[in-house]
């Protein structure tokens, strides 16, 4: 079995397992779980930067590293924005002070 075939099997089985596990998570935990998973994408950012640094002017590796870096950064920033929005829902709003308008 070639390395590509093995990698595709791992991707397929990992995707099915992830789909099964996420389907069993209660709706109240989806946002915190997603935010934590998006923060873990920081590891993907480091791996992408390592790939780009070691590409040695090989165009396919540079393209793959750049794409993975873009998607990982999008995931990290989106995760933190969702977390910030979620935490804002739980903050207390301060009462208005001052006179009439």
UniProtKB/TrEMBL annotation:
Query: PANTHER family annotated for this entry?
Result: NAD(P) TRANSHYDROGENASE, PROTON-TRANSLOCATING NAD(P)(+) TRANSHYDROGENASE
Q: What is this protein called?
A: proton-translocating NAD(P)(+) transhydrogenase
Q: What is its EC number?
A: 7.1.1.1
**Which keywords does this Swiss-Prot/TrEMBL entry list?**
Cell inner membrane, Cell membrane, Membrane, NAD, NADP, Translocase, Transmembrane, Transmembrane helix
- Give any Gene Ontology cellular component: plasma membrane
**Any GO BP annotation:** NADPH regeneration
Please state where this protein is localized.
Cell inner membrane
**Record's keyword annotation contains Acetylation:** no
């Amino acid at each position: 079995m070639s390395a590509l075939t093995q990698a595709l099997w791992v991707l397929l089985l990992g995707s099915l397992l992830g789909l099964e596990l996420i389907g069993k998570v209660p709706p109240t935990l989806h946002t915190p779980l997603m935010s934590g998973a998006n923060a873990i994408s920081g590891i993907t950012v480091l791996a992408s930067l390592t790939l780009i640094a070691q590409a040695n002017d090989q165009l396919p590796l540079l393209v793959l590293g750049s794409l993975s870096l873009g998607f990982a950064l999008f995931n990290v920033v989106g995760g933190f924005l969702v977390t910030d929005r979620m935490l804002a829902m739980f903050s207390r709003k301060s009462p208005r002070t001052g006179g009439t308008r």
